Amino acid sequence: MRKLRAADFSDLLIRIRSKVRAWGNRHLSLAGRATLIASALLPSAQFQLTHADVPRSVSLSIDRIARFFLWQKDRNTRGMHYVDWHTVCLPISHGGLGLHSLDKWRGPLRSRHAWDLLQPSASMFHSIIRHRYGDRLLRGTPRRGDSPVLRVLHEGMTHLDPILHWRIADGASISVLHQTWLLDLDFARWPTFIDCCGLEGLMVADLLDDHGGWSLDCLRQLFGAELITLILQVTVDPNLQQDTPTLLPRFSGQTVTGLAYAALFPPPSQDAGWIKTLRLRPRERSFWWRLSLDAIPTRTWLAHRGMAIETNCPWGCITPESRDHLLGECSCLQAVGTALQRWGLTLPLVSSWTALMDGLSNSACSSTFTLLGFAVYHCWQARNARIHLQEYATPTIIAMRVLESASRSATFPTQAN
Ligand SMILES: [Zn+2]
Which residues are in the Reverse transcriptase zinc-binding domain (predicted)? Predict the structure, then answer.
């Protein structure tokens, strides 16, 4: 099979571009565009990425089309990219929109082939591949002139490694440093109390004696007493026909591809569940996602980038319009709060983003912020209509919209609590 070139995928790119042109005719929110990208644009290249040695330039081109479509205002107007593509493609738990960048997704897609290859009941095709390439499939880096099949499998194997735990038969297939066979992490990612350089290139077989048990002399040369105690608890099972991989227990319950993709990201460092606490619908949720990244073009935001002269809030407030201002100080939001008050509802205003996060982390009152979630969104919509000289909603109308949105939301706070 000859090496594939970018030109071999021109049809695919043409198809994707024509899809995007057709969608450009509709008026779509950011959430709507993100849904189309996730459900129709990126998956259209998934088959080729999984099975063929697609040049990286092709997956980068498709990512680029998706990126521009996400921020596009309409068919003829390109919008500003308020959030970089890397952040957009982070999982939701890590502060992203959860889109799968093809450049990142291709390795995990291919890990499925590598996993099939490692199964004892591998197909005839896999047996032939295994026989032909032997250990080169599991280790080493692809070389110039390697076949596309080997390249696809090798990339898959690289992404499979972090989610595998190896059971030892003779240790000949298991790298001491780069594969997981002790507890649930490979040595290369352990805290550095081990001399990793001394372990480079060693296989687990090198730590065993002639009878297939652990060689104490060898272990003492390489590891400290505590680690040796742990290693001695690992079973070497001569009844296994060969070293056997299993999926790490902490990754169980998902597809191999999903697991390999999740392993690309560290565990979330902070609780990103706040956005769920607001119980919004997709349109408002993507607005709040942008707010969380301070990626909303308030006048202060624009002024910092040299794009606005006037910084005061367009609702006539005598203070600069910033993200914090939109959450409590703004006269429009306060008037919405007064209107809601007449109907017996309290709008919880906050002085800053930090104060909001503190409030949301307090489970006793977090659900009351749903109203604020809708109110800030609708005030922002009315504000945009106003500065573009379109008909805009008054605070009373906004309050009615807030009430309507909140009552349609599955968990209206006054009913839930
Ligand atoms: Zn204001």
Answer: 278-335
